[in-house]
Structure formats: C-alpha cells, structure tokens
Amino acid sequence: MGSLFHLEVGGRTLALAHAERVHFDGANAPLYEAVASHVRSSDRVLDLGCGHGALGPVASAARARHVTFSDVHAPSVTAALTNAARNGLGPCNGVVGDWLEPLRGERFDVVLFNPPQTGGPAGLEARQPDRFGGEDGALHFVRLAAQLPLVLRRPGGRLVRMRLSRATPRAVDRALAAADGVIHSVGA
Ligand SMILES: C[S@@+](CC[C@H](N)C(=O)[O-])C[C@H]1O[C@@H](n2cnc3c(N)ncnc32)[C@H](O)[C@@H]1O
User: Residue 49 C-alpha to ligand 1 middle, in angstroms?
Assistant: First the structure.
C-alpha cells in the first residue's frame, strides 16, 4: 500500500491509499466535490476505471445506495474496495475487466468516468492504452461513446465524466456528441 491522501467531501474526510500506477493529483481535489453534487441517495453508481477509487468513495460519501468499482487492473479494484472499507463506506462491489465487458447488461443511475486521457508519445500510447488516451487523449471516449449510454438506467441515468486539462476537449467532445446519454462534465 502506498501513502494515504485525504479528500474532503460532503463534510467528511476520506483517507485513501494510492493504487499502483495511479496517483492522486491534489490539484483536482475540487473536482471531487463537484462529482459528489451529481450523486443522489437512491443512486446505484458505477466507478468505471476506478484506479485508486477516489470517485467511488466520493459517491458513497455522498450517500449513494451502492457503488460498483471496475478496472482492468485487479489490484486497482482491490485498492478501491480497501479504501471503501477503510472509510466505513456503504454497500459496494468490484469487477475486473475491459471497460463495460464485465458488467454484462447491468444499468446504473450514475456512471463516473475518468479514463486515461493523456495523449501518448507515438507508439507508446498504442502499446499502453491503459495508461494513455491515444495520440490525442480521446481514444477511450471514442471507443466507448456509443456503449456508455447502454449502461445508464432510463430515465434519469447520468454520465459524469472528469475532464482534465491535459485532455483534448474538442476531440473528446466530438466523440461524446454521438452518445445518446445525459452527460455532465466536471473539470477544465
Ligand atoms: C486516469 S485513471 C482514473 C482513476 C480514478 N477513476 C480517478 O478518477 O482518480 C484511469 C483508470 O482507467 C483504468 N483503465 C484503463 N484502461 C482500462 C480498460 N480498458 N478497462 C477498464 N479500466 C481501464 C486504469 O487502470 C486507471 O485506473
């Protein structure tokens, strides 16, 4: 386990550990409060690509009914569940696999989505798609734009995506324009 970082959300202080390969950037802390504002107490939430699990615990601290943590890296899912337990958060489970593949038709009220969205050096981004968002940062948004609405409960399901300044917003926006879902962007 790495060092703990602390996040204030909904009047609570969450103590969260970094997972291997994913690091918390304190500059993004205000975004997490914004994410919490999208969560209602009756919501079933998917933290898609959970990494160290900050988004899911934030949703849980905002009193989500249930949180599912998913990631392609099993240690990240384990770290997310450990973080949830460390903070005494509410009901949750974890699944491992490529984006929506392990969810098998499940639907959620809220999907939290902060995929790798850093453009990678030519060649490297193709070899490590789990760390980069293709050449322009939009790879995962493009891949998932049509499928994401399918995991949202109708009516009322919301996709909350974190938009980081490193991303290429126009490319990502173009990818998501095709998505027939309710999309809220939090961030730059
Ligand atoms: C930028 S990190 C976001 C971590 C966390 N959700 C947050 O907001 O701090 C992106 C996460 O997506 C995961 N990921 C990358 N490719 C994936 C894939 N094909 N399927 C599922 N998760 C993936 C990575 O392992 C990583 O944990």
Answer: 3
In sequence order, what are the residues at sequence separation of 6 or more whose Cβ sits closer than 8 angstroms to the Cβ of residue 140?
Answer: 49, 99, 115, 116, 117, 129, 133, 134
pLDDT at 167 (0 to 100): 58
Give the residue from 16, 155, 180, 3 showing the smallest Cα distance to 82.
Answer: 16
pLDDT at residue 123 in the model: 83
**4-187: CATH, from 3.30.230.10, 3.40.50.150, 3.40.50.1370, 2.60.40.10:** 3.40.50.150
Report whether residue 116 contacts ligand 1, using a CB cutoff of 6 Å: yes
Sign of CA dihedral 25, 163, 144, 44: positive
Name the residue of 130, 131, 132, 185 whose CB sits within 8 Å of the most ligand 1 atoms, as the mutation to test its pocket: 130
Cβ(95) – ligand 1 distance below 6 Å: no
Does ligand 1 lie within 6 Å of residue 66's CB atom? no
Give the model confidence (pLDDT) of 12-44 as tens digits.
899 988 766 556 677 777 788 888 999 999 999
Q: Is the CB of 87 under 6 A from ligand 1?
A: no
Position 141 pLDDT exceeds 90 = no
The reported pTM is: 0.91
Confidence check: pLDDT of 90 > 60: yes
